[in-house]
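Q: Sequence in, structure out?
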Amino acid sequence: MSTAISGAAPWCPGLTIAGRYRLRVRIGEGGAAEVWRALDTTLEAPVAIKLLHPDLAHGTIAKRFLREAKAAAKLRSLHVVQILDAGLHDDTAYITMELLEGETLADRLDRVEQLPPKLVSRFVGHIAKAAAKAHAAQIVHRDLKPTNVFLVTDDDTDEIAKVFDFGIAKVKASPGAGQVTGTTTAGTLLGTPEYMSPEQARGLAVDYRTDLYAMGILAFESLTGRLPFEASKMQDVLQLAAEGRLLRPSQIVAVAPGFDAWFARATAFRAKDRFDSAKDLATALDDVLLLEG
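A: Exactly. Output:
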């Protein structure tokens, strides 16, 4: 859910953040923050720096923003964007990250609309590895979606998916229960409606299985080229998500045998009926899609 801001951010090429990061060019922006390509003048290395809009400096969003850095910095995975530094610059919160060359999954889908089954299986497998690392650290992302997945090419020319933007992650878990608690007030909606699990859309407590649901939606979109809702208005999408009323993949395109059943389990209305883990979800998807090629 986007946050309104009242004016233009005071950043420009050449500005140095925290006495270290010299801004070069803006490479992304959202409702609450901008991302810039920058030079780390201490290490003389390029980085990406995410800057929270000054209007949001003193609210809960700022706390959540810096919590992203703390949450993601704990994770060591090829499939999680590496956090390098975080802090404040004149009351502006910032996070520096590894600078990646490539595009988001959302950008890719905008260009090609649908991905071949083998690529969907690969990318979901990578996202699942990132999610598994987070879940093992008792972190729930809560906003897995194509714009938060970056596609890069490694040295062997194979594409790798990396997850970023843990800005609304919940990071505390009740001992032994897997139930995540945190600083969010009950009834507060955080996330993106199209990828919200029913419990998330209803403002209820969530655990790692809300990420599994989002991965199911992401796989559906990547394979079919659209979302599983007969709605265009945000409020209608939120209502359908809250009620668990989703289209079947085979209603949109011809899919591999078993994909409808996989999707139904990944996005089951009751969290307990979903896959047991991100790894199990990805393994089951391999079994369905890799047979299709």
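Confidence is low (pLDDT under 50) at residues 1-6, 172-187.
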